[in-house]
Here is the input.
Amino acid sequence: MIANMDLLKKITTVPGVPGHEDKVRDLIKELMKGKAEISTDKLGSVICKKEGDPDGPRVMLSGHMDEIGFMVKTIGEKGFLTFTPLGGWWNQVMLAQRVRVFTKKGPVEGIIGSKPPHVLDSEERKKPVEIKNMFIDVGTKSKEETEKLGIKPGDPVVPATDFVEMANGDSLMAKAWDDRVGCALFMQIIEELNRKKHPNTVFGVGSVQEEVGLRGAQTSSQIIKPDVGFALEVGIAGDMPGMTEQQAQEKLGEGPVILMLDRSMIPNTRLRDFVIDVATEKEIPYQVDFMEGGGTDAGKIHLVGSGVPSLVLAVPSRYIHSHYSIISRKDYENTLKLLMEVVTRLDKKTVEKFTSY
Here is the structure.
């Protein structure tokens, strides 16, 4: 399968921080119209149902729509904004970065600022600037002028970035690969399934509020009641300067990642081994990794009902949880190939084996 570059550009450039995923949901509904039965849960996760065998297992493919960003807290007398992070940010990647504040009147450009180094004493310069000491500058000179732009507390703030095909022809740079890559994967899988028979019903889910507690995965999976679940995610590539051998398990260009565990779940080992066997049989390159510092939608999916065999499949990515990250087009395409091979083999008998203890 070939990457749909137009889809990847659209899905990464649309804004959608936790609790404000409306534009991402609207895009998915627009592009999936006529290709799947579309519904939502009451938190706003979008569910795209593609029926194959109605008596076959229910397969859930979850990619979360939300990206990390910010929310406006206050407007100061001189027009500057204080803000709170939505999702996990590292202070050092935030300063001097462009952002957009989304108001009811439309987007407003800004930049994250702090005191310049020229006025800091020697001890202050040694310390990272704390988020509480940062602000957003939208170019105004007073609270009244800022309010006239339509900005108010509670407005979402999103990194202002572009989609870039890099010079080597394989690397793709954008914001929000975490986790619009997962959304793009299930969308392309469903589109392809419209041309193929499959022994199951597939539910592609764009979940909400993953970055702040895996919330949409919990509510959407309660509706779907899946027999098997996959969280489609980004991995943490370590092929860069300064990483230890242990930290560099994932590399761009060496295939999709199968997680052995994350903080929220140890996968069903029979499902895990099934996926590895399929990759080996079809000669699809893959990597394995351990994500001890984060959770995924699978952490909620696998606990639904009496339990759901679940697994995380990920596309390696450099620099996640920042304004830009990088993936390999080749890794994305190999993840598509592996996922399609797996999904079309998940018949009733195969899925039952995962939980026949």
In short: The chain has a mean pLDDT of 96. The longest helix spans residues 177-193. The domain at 69-159 is CATH 2.40.30.40 (Elongation Factor Tu (Ef-tu); domain 3). The chain has ten helices and 17 strands.
